[in-house]
Design a protein that fits this description.
Length: 376
């Protein structure tokens, strides 16, 4: 019976083992970073212990929700931080629970830049960005509330090293909390993406203008974080093709290739890229397939892809060598035992969008059912 199981698993590409640097993963179904806004006052809460441990399988890889690197990094209520001792202590039991079940756990480190307003900022100051270009108000993902943004203050060249240093310290804190590594959040129109994208970045110093200059902020952070905790514990998330939060690039293919090639110099563990078909953070649109292939071929480390994957096309992406690992967001949110469900080809729980971001410590968070046979 055991033998039969092993044979069955190995015929499912997503469930084959993979060695990601020092980490021996038993399958390729990754928990995507998912903001859940249940970290009251930016402090991770005990209910996250159950949430993450439910989604852990032995040898599975999990990426924690976006976690602020400093008091200027926030733009949403109740997202976790990792810049104080209290944050570090609060993360420890969560990380321990994931490790107790054999998971590998990275922390996604984040600065929102201009996707914020005075209400989230220390002393009610303006948010910071590469530019002073404001964002238009946007309907929040619940489809009702309107997010209002305060026009950002453009960072001076001299201030930039201190922001890079925030990421370095956050990475050190993540290691102190017990995480196995960090994922630098360079996607989705947040601070790092604001620097990279040519429709936002209008700087005239060495952090703006040419493609090389626009990527310098991201690469300064990669270098600082890799020097702090070792490149074999560092990943980065990028969304060159996306246009979230008014952060489009006019030549995303060139941006993607330049980043892949530049990252090779630092020897970081992985590059995690959002599929071009993702129209918004949680909505799949039409797009030619295989847009990420040139980037995948150029990058020498582990490649992770995310965005709109089902069991079937995740298996195809691995089988065809288009990626090493596939991250799942909404399906993993709603199916704590997703790898098991993929193994037995079980039906999936539907996800409940209205509870994605509510602050309830149970509802829409830890109450999604397991397959009956795996409730243990
Ligand atoms: C509720 C929710 C929260 C998210 N939070 C984050 C986040 O904190 N960091 C991030 O990089 N992406 C975030 N995303 C994007 C997901 O990681 C993922 O890229 C997206 O859901 C597409 O994958 P899927 O089609 O498998 O859901 C979030 C998406 C959802 C639905």
């Amino acid at each position: 019976m055991e033998m039969e199981n092993a044979v069955a698993k190995h015929s499912i590409p997503l469930l084959t083992p993979y060695k990601m640097g020092r980490f021996n993963l038993s399958h390729r179904v990754v928990l995507a970073p998912l903001t859940r806004q249940r970290s009251y006052g930016n402090v991770p809460q005990p209910h996250a212990v159950l949430y993450y441990s439910q989604r852990t399988s032995p040898g599975g890889f999990l990426i924690a929700e976006a976690t602020g690197v400093s008091d200027t990094a926030q733009g949403y209520p109740d997202t976790p931080g990792i810049w104080t001792k209290e944050h570090v202590e609060a993360w420890k039991p969560i990380v321990e629970a994931v490790h107790a079940k054999g998971g590998v756990f990275f922390c996604q480190i984040w600065h929102v830049g201009r996707v914020s307003n005075r209400g989230f900022q220390p002393n009610g100051q303006a948010p910071i960005s590469c530019s002073d270009k404001p964002l238009m108000p946007q309907i929040r993902s619940n489809g009702i509330d309107e997010a209002m943004f305060t026009p950002p203050r453009r960072l001076s060249t001299e201030e930039i090293p201190s922001i890079v240093n925030n990421f370095r310290l956050a990475a050190r804190n993540a290691m102190e909390a017990g995480f196995d590594g960090v994922e630098i959040h360079g996607a989705h129109g947040y601070l790092i993406d604001q620097f990279m994208k040519d429709t936002v970045n209008d700087r005239t110093d060495e952090y703006g203008g040419s493609l090389q200059n626009r990527c310098k902020f991201a690469l300064d952070i990669v270098e600082a974080v890799a020097n702090e905790i070792g490149p074999d514990r560092v990943g980065i998330r990028l969304s060159p093709f996306a246009d979230y939060m008014e952060s489009a690039d006019t030549n995303p293919q060139a941006l993607a290739l330049h980043m892949a090639e530049s990252l090779n110099k630092y020897g970081i563990l992985y590059c995690h890229v959002v599929e071009a078909r993702m129209k918004t953070v949680g909505e799949v649109g039409e797009c030619p397939p295989h847009m990420l292939l040139p980037m995948r071929k150029a990058f020498q480390g582990t490649f992770i892809t995310v965005g709109g994957f089902t069991r079937e096309d995740g298996n195809a992406a691995v089988a065809e060598g288009r990626t090493d690992l596939v991250a799942y967001g909404r399906w993993f949110l709603a199916n704590p035992d997703l790898p098991k469900r993929f193994e037995v080809n079980a039906d999936l729980n539907k996800y409940d969008r209205p509870t994605f971001y509510i602050s309830d410590p149970v509802v829409g968070y830890t109450d999604y059912p397991f397959l009956e046979s795996t409730t243990a």
